[in-house]
Specification:
Two copies of one chain form a homodimer. Chain A is α+β, with helices and mostly antiparallel strands. The first copy, chain A, has two domains: about 280 residues, Zn peptidases (Aminopeptidase, 3-Layer(aba) Sandwich); about 120 residues, Alpha-Beta Plaits (2-Layer Sandwich). Helix content of chain A is about 35%, strand content about 20%. The first copy, chain A, has 15 helices and 18 strands. Chain A has a six-stranded mixed beta sheet with strand order 1-2-6-3-7-17, sandwiched between helices. In chain A, a hairpin with a 2-residue loop joins strand 4 and strand 5. In chain A, helix 1 packs antiparallel against helix 15 and helix 2 packs across helix 4. Chain A starts with a helix and ends with a helix. In chain A, about 60% of the residues are buried. At the A-B interface, strand 10, helix 7, helix 8, helix 11 and strand 11 of A face strand 10, helix 7, helix 8, helix 11 and strand 11 of B.
């Protein structure tokens, strides 16, 4: 059990921890837009400085455009011979668009109705700070951590952690850990602390179709040339068949169905299709026919268009035949699909479906493999128990449809089964306007993080 | 024949006429964007003031968002008992996007390689000014015009002249004319002055598909709900069949084929498919199979997507399932298709093809009927002869694929067959970056306009 002084400390320092979080939330650390590189760097430096103040040896490792923060407990705050847990979180955020739908500024954190509203509140700066706060409570009360802690805070998760495998591989010796906890997820439902035993992988790409050498007048030339927008619509439409299945060649070949035990567990989760439909605001008729909603979200691969741009986008009418049109397309992958094989299938499909008069180009923006961990892993039990202690409810085992690329890399490269969990709630509007984190989840998350240290330390 | 002093005057005043045109080109009179309403009004006032200086009674008639300029020759400059010709042109322009592809600013007129570069140079401010200059030459030399002139300059042509029919109907008595010349077109080829005996009509609309009540994370929710972007692609793709024909119910029912005489004429035009393909920069494989390129551009209806907007459009990746997606779609109509019937067919198609989980909305932005005039009309001969005199080459009879809504309204409401012509060249980049008008076309266009007055006056 967690020492009482640790929980007391966290209860007494809520206001201070909130202020520290607000400082971090104010940085517009948007990793997908180069205009914000300086803000991201400033955010990383700010977090590293805070960790140094707690007794960690925090360093920024330049990587691509946004540094990775590695912070290790020093002998002053942890016994060097004790086991080590790697805590992963990310300090970068999604773009806030559409900005006009936010009630308060995305980078002006605001408390409303018991929640912190800001871009990154629940994905993932709030969770990152909860983990730090859990450590701080041990350091400031007991005097030292129950085990060594290695923080791994990334700045490019929201763009798919490109090339992160190279970094992990190159620094594998430094990253050697006994346990790993990835806090970039949330509860399955309010009151249901959750560990995700599976995540989907991701391939994200941009498909561009080029037709005429310049924009043309649609009256003068309409009917003579192939319109890239019409061609793009046709190509995207052909990527699904009438049953909602993806038509890329061999797309489902490597898909492994979940164990029947796992499917049974999912049926016992507090998931009400009607409530979920109300939440998303539309009928649950996407994806493959004949599969349950949770299967479609967790264990079935998808192909979605995340953006289309082409032609005239302003107010009113412009009679233009655009020279080109682009689509951002992502595919969510499940075990044992491989990004490379799926990308080959995509390119093959595009080649076979490009009409005369059009030149197609595919640019890969990110890729990550899917991830699964066995529910029997001892660390699953230890972290699950820590969540139960902090939040006062049994920890559910589920999967998630999103991608946290580090999870699969930790497992494959570092040979440690990471425990993927977190403190966000399903209606926290992550990636959407008015992202938020409930105050209670933020503060109790710190208690949970402290309990994880306590319980994982007891495993070895 | 045109009095020699008139052509001499025009030769001597080229610099002055160029400066006057530049003044008009500097107004960003973009009719589709409400931010430019004041600029449009200023442009109209500037033109009206210039006409007053020449002896016209020019008035701005408030209409929707951009006034219509009506300017009539006073008894000081024309015999009230002489016949009247209505000259139509428009002072509004297309948006300049994409602005970064312009070599010089779209509203900073610049001379390069013998051409005037600016948005509106050839569509339609340059032509508008040539017509005024032709009149000016008569007034300043002969002392009066050979016939009465009524200028009708519109400010909403580029948004499809919405509700213009109401204006024409309400002011039909004032607009009563013996002849009408619509100068919003160009040469079929350099050295080939042209009269357009047919124009396509237009229906322009915005189709919006709404799905989830807010943007969703494509990992968490992908597979559960229908993605409005994927649905939009599918719906647009279904609007054409494999032969390039439009699939809207009854779309081709009212289409009248051109007379075989007309088709024969088109074959004699200096049209080289290879050169045209080089010009547009892509293969000529759009539109309906089994139809010639000129048929597909002039006498066959089309359906084109002019813009798609939805999801994330910025740099890099954002894993979003958008709440909605929109497409701007236009259809070019040919005799005897009717906008209302085509719109009904479109709505019927959308209703029949809207999947579960999606709510569709169609907003009509503009509509105009197709237009044809007989090559035997006497005014066709008089205007064709004027063009021949000015440009020194026989006038060709062709059609155009674009829409100038006024043409059909003049014919149907005012009961006058308008002669549709102009001085632009096919490679003037109208509606595209780097729009231009050749200096020679601008100046000789004024000679042609003067010759039209002379020749039309001789008909009655």
């Amino acid at each position: 059990m967690l020492p009482e002084e640790v929980t007391e400390y966290l209860a007494l320092h809520r206001q201070e921890h909130l202020e520290k979080l607000f400082e971090v939330l104010r940085f517009p650390s948007i990793s997908s837009q180069s205009a914000y590189e300086a803000d991201s760097l400033a955010c990383a430096e700010h977090i590293a400085e805070h960790l140094r103040g707690l007794g960690f040896s925090a360093e920024l490792h330049p990587w691509r455009k946004h540094p990775i923060i590695l912070a290790r407990s020093t002998p002053e705050i942890a016994d060097p011979s004790a086991p080590t847990v790697l805590f992963y979180a990310h300090y970068d955020v999604q773009p806030p668009d559409p900005v006009d739908l936010w009630t308060s500024g995305p980078f002006e954190p605001t408390i409303r109705d018991g929640a912190i509203y800001a871009r990154g509140a629940s994905d993932d700066k709030g969770l990152l700070m909860s983990c730090i706060n859990g450590c701080e409570a041990f350091i400031r009360t007991v005097g030292r951590l129950p085990m060594n802690v290695l923080f791994f805070f990334e700045g490019e998760e929201e763009i798919g952690s490109p090339e992160l495998e190279d970094f992990i591989t190159a620094t594998a010796d430094d990253l050697k850990s006994d346990f790993a906890v990835v806090t970039d997820m949330g509860f399955f439902a309010p009151g249901f602390p959750t560990i995700m035993t599976g995540l989907r992988g991701l391939v994200y790409l941009e498909l561009t179709l080029n037709g005429p050498s310049a924009d043309l007048h649609s009256g003068q030339h309409g009917g003579a040339v192939v319109n890239p927008l019409n061609a793009l619509a046709k190509m995207i439409a052909a990527m699904h068949d009438e049953t909602g299945s993806v038509t890329l060649p061999g797309f489902y070949d490597d898909v492994v169905e979940p164990e029947s035990v796992e499917l049974e567990q999912w049926k016992s989760l507090p998931f009400d299709e009607g409530e979920y439909a109300d939440f998303v605001g539309t009928a649950l008729v996407g994806g493959e026919r004949g599969r349950s909603v949770l299967e479609r979200r967790w264990s079935r691969p998808t192909l979605d268009c995340n953006g289309i741009t082409g032609g005239y986008q302003g107010q009113g009418a412009k009679t233009v035949l655009p020279a080109c049109a682009t689509a951002k397309i992502s595919m969510r992958l499940v075990p044992n699909q491989r990004p490379e094989k799926v990308l080959d299938a995509f390119s093959e499909f595009v080649s076979a479906n490009t009409p005369a008069g059009i030149r197609a180009n595919v640019e890969v923006l990110s890729r990550s493999r899917p991830f699964v961990v066995s529910p029997d892993t001892p660390a699953v039990g230890a972290v699950g128990e820590a969540m139960r202690e902090a939040f006062g409810a049994e920890t559910a085992l589920a999967r998630a449809g999103g991608s946290v690329p580090i999870s699969e890399l930790i497992q494959r490269v570092l040979k440690v089964d990471p425990i993927v969990t977190g403190f966000a709630l399903p209606d926290d509007n992550i990636h959407s306007p008015n992202e938020r984190l409930q105050l209670e989840q933020f503060h109790t998350g710190a208690v949970a993080a402290a309990a994880m240290l306590n319980n994982l330390a007891g495993l070895k």
